[in-house]
Specification:
With 94 residues, the protein is mainly α. The chain is 78% helix and 0% strand.
């Protein structure tokens, strides 16, 4: 992890590059837009899915079938929306 001083130095370098060569900077921006965000496959999504399954299983153990099904369905729908959001290519900026 970068310290505050290192982040500030990095930001200053980024600004200098942007000021000196706009075409070079735009080539990186174009590539970044084409890259997938990866948020639907990252550790945050995995943790979310595991927690969702555990809460649903706990609800089944307690005896609340309706809550378990509702929570599992909600977890699945959130995951699906998250995946579909990552699958949609970003709109080009004008």
């Amino acid at each position: 992890m970068l310290s505050d001083r290192e982040r500030e130095t990095l930001r200053e370098l980024e600004l200098r590059i942007l000021d000196q060569d706009r075409r070079f900077a735009r080539s990186f921006e174009a590539r970044a837009r084409r890259l997938p965000s990866g948020s639907a496959t990252g550790p945050g999504m995995r943790i979310f899915l595991i927690v969702g399954m555990l809460v649903s299983a706990l609800a089944l153990v307690v005896g609340s079938l309706g809550f378990a099904l509702a929570f599992a369905l909600a977890t699945g729908l959130i995951w699906l929306v998250w995946r579909l959001d990552d699958a949609v290519p970003p709109r080009p900026s004008s």
